[in-house]
Specification:
This protein has about 425 residues and is an alpha/beta fold. It is globular. Helix 3 (about 145-150) packs parallel to helix 4 (about 170-185) and helix 8 (about 275-290) runs parallel beside helix 9 (about 315-330). The chain has helices at about 45-50, 75-85, 145-150, 170-185, 205-215, 230-235, 245-260, 275-290, 315-330, 350-360, 400-410, and strands spanning about 70-75, 100-105, 140, 160-165, 195-200, 220-225, 265-270, 290-295, 340, 345. The structure holds iron/sulfur cluster. Iron/sulfur cluster binds next to loops. The site of iron/sulfur cluster (SF4) has 8 residues, from loops.
Length: about 425
């Protein structure tokens, strides 16, 4: 039985920004609308109770089947293509190196983060399993099927890492443990290490410890917003969402204790209204604590509360990407860098020749995240086109080529040296 629904996301009028950065005043989220009672908490999916049959591909005209973690998880389109569950090709890459999993429930995530395609306000017009997230669809797949495929030959798997993304849901912790346990029962975490993208709002220190005891390698916290004000505006009271900056920091510091140096970190989205100085000061703080930052370029996710706002201008993004790489991997410090009166980087605080070498190497402009098997500063989590279209790449999911570096230099306003 299936039921055709007209679930639509209204299109919003766009705010344009002709500046070379996204200032705080421009980046104001919309207020979430009211959700009709009959759409709340995944009611239609639970009431119709359609049994799932294998893989479910997001389809906004079909009522989603009743799928729940830990039996079911969602995975990124890139991971589904790499696993062979979905057909398709990705510009510039043969596969993704990270198996990104997302817990799934008919009620979906109970938070309402302004930039997120999974946010609660979307239940008004889209079942949870049909929501786009970081620009792509997330097919729902039985966890046992994923494990069966990967367990055939973990040593030679294209995946260098697996990551479980928790969402804000009362079952999130227990199901994360269950998914992790299922995985480590069959797959040696030394062959494919596991990262946890946590949901601090509902977590205790004992929960963090449990993920470590069950075999997780790296624990990350999605701060996403670079300052407490921005956090509150985009993830807290500003959008009727439950998250608190202080709780996120509390859990991140627990992770630092439990997982140790270089085994914890924070996600940060660049261009939601913070200055370049503010985000780089945070990057430095994380490095000083022994952790890493994993960066995303803000992209207005369709259906989110800020889908009418401009994506981060490429010059702002490139400056932050480059400076962050220097702080994380080249021992540069934010105090040595110089900023203008709007907080934009004007000097990276290292010799011009060294800067030129780092730019030409190109690694600074690749997607950042938990490492894979190539080298420490190359992320397994390459999230192909999660923060930009292939026509104007923000985070390169592959090693940038000469023509890409030329473009990056233009965006940075650092011309190619004439020899
Ligand atoms: S908690 Fe995570 S998944 Fe939920 S709305 Fe916020 S960013 Fe999205």
């Amino acid at each position: 039985m299936s039921c055709i629904e007209q679930k639509t996301t209204p299109s919003q009028s766009k705010v344009t920004n002709h500046l070379d950065h996204n200032p705080f005043e421009v980046m104001e989220p919309r207020t979430p609308g009211r959700t009709p009672v009959d759409r709340k908490n995944g009611k239609p999916v639970k009431a119709n109770d359609i049994p799932p049959q294998g893989v479910y591909l997001p389809n906004n005209n079909i009522l989603a089947p009743h799928m729940k973690s830990p039996e079911y998880v969602q995975l990124s389109t890139a991971a589904a293509i790499t696993l062979g569950i979905m057909g398709g090709r990705m510009y510039g890459c043969e596969c993704t190196r990270c198996l990104n999993l997302l817990l799934t429930y008919p009620e979906g995530c109970r938070a309402n983060c302004a930039y997120c395609g999974l946010a609660r306000h979307r239940e008004a017009d889209r079942d949870y399993a049909d929501r786009n997230f970081i620009r792509v669809d997330w097919p729902a797949v039985p966890m046992a099927d994923i494990i069966d495929i990967v367990a055939k030959d973990p040593e030679n798997s294209p995946f260098h890492r697996m990551c479980i993304s928790m969402i804000t849901h009362p079952r999130s912790e227990q199901d994360t443990f269950a998914v992790l346990e299922q995985w480590t029962d069959r797959i040696d975490p030394d062959a494919i290490p596991v990262s946890i993208l946590s949901n601090p709002t509902t977590m205790t220190r004992a929960d963090v410890q449990r993920t470590k005891d069950l075999g997780a390698d790296i624990f990350t916290v999605a701060l996403d917003a670079a300052t407490p004000e921005l956090f509150d505006r985009t993830r807290g009271k500003g959008v009727q969402s439950p998250h608190k900056w202080s709780k996120y920091w509390e859990v991140m510091l627990e992770a630092r204790d439990i997982f140790g140096p270089h085994k914890f970190g924070a996600h940060i989205i660049v261009g939601m209204g913070e200055t370049e100085f503010e985000v780089l000061r945070l990057v430095q703080e994380l490095v000083d604590l022994g952790g890493h930052s994993h960066m995303f370029c803000f992209f207005p996710e369709q259906g989110s509360l800020i889908d009418h706002l401009p994506a981060t201008p490429r010059d702002q993004w490139r400056r932050v990407q480059l400076a962050r790489y220097l702080i994380d991997y080249r021992d540069a410090r934010v105090e040595q860098m110089r900023f203008d009166d709007q907080g934009r980087v004007t000097d990276y605080g290292i010799a011009k020749s060294e800067l030129a070498d780092v730019i030409d190497e190109g690694i600074a402009f690749r997607t950042s995240g938990c490492p894979g098997k190539f080298q420490d500063d190359i992320s397994a989590c390459d999230r192909p086109y999660g923060d930009s279209p292939p026509s104007n790449i923000a985070s390169y999911p592959f090693q940038p080529k000469k023509k890409d570096i030329k473009r990056i230099r233009k965006q940075l306003d650092i011309p190619v040296a004439v020899e």
